[in-house]
Design the sequence.
């Protein structure tokens, strides 16, 4: 079983991955944030480092997905390879922070990788408004996120909504983070778990 959690920066993906991993006894897999050699440079100089960062993420997540299938374990993944290709890279290109040449090269690489991977059995999308994202980003206090702009988060949110509205690769569960405090309220987490159980049972 492969469950993946998608959502904008600050939506609570890492927290939910940890909580669900503990509940289901699934192996959690997180974004490679601490060891990412490009993140700090990217947030300080987006245009210079956007392509490098996106290729790093693409490579990292491709390896992750391949490892999931080879291991045969039940896993929960923090962020998907699709978000890199359908949210972050196109947004950087549209904002003029990634050249058309680099973007086309990137998309070509993603399409090749996509032909070799299997989508998650269940995708959970954490839907959150920009004020909620900003609040949660500030609470966790990562230095490299201090310079993230409001308009950047809004553009990402718009792309997430567009992508999710057309997602057809498998089962999809949408969680409204504005009205669900799963990180502090056990009852709210319980509602998510009940919804996941219903989706998982429908897979068999």
Sequence:
């Amino acid at each position: 079983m492969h469950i993946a959690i998608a959502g904008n920066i600050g939506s609570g993906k890492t927290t939910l991955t940890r909580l669900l991993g503990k509940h289901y006894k699934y192996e959690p897999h997180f974004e490679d944030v601490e060891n990412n050699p490009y993140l700090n440079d990217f947030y300080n100089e987006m245009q210079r480092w956007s392509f490098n960062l996106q290729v790093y993420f693409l490579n990292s997540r491709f390896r992750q997905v391949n490892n999931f299938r080879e291991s045969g374990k039940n896993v929960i993944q923090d962020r998907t390879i699709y978000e890199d290709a359908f949210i972050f890279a196109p947004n950087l290109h549209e904002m003029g922070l990634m050249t058309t040449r680099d973007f086309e090269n990137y998309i070509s690489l993603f399409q090749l990788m996509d032909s070799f991977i299997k989508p998650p059995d269940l995708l959970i999308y954490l839907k959150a408004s920009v004020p909620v994202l900003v609040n949660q980003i500030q609470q966790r206090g990562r230095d490299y996120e201090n310079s993230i702009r409001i308009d950047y988060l809004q553009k990402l949110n718009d792309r997430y909504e567009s992508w999710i509205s057309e997602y057809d690769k498998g089962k999809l569960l949408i969680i409204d983070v504005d009205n669900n405090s799963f990180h502090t309220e056990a009852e709210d987490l319980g509602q998510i778990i009940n919804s996941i159980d219903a989706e998982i049972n429908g897979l068999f």
Observations:
- The first strand starts at residue 2 and ends at 7.
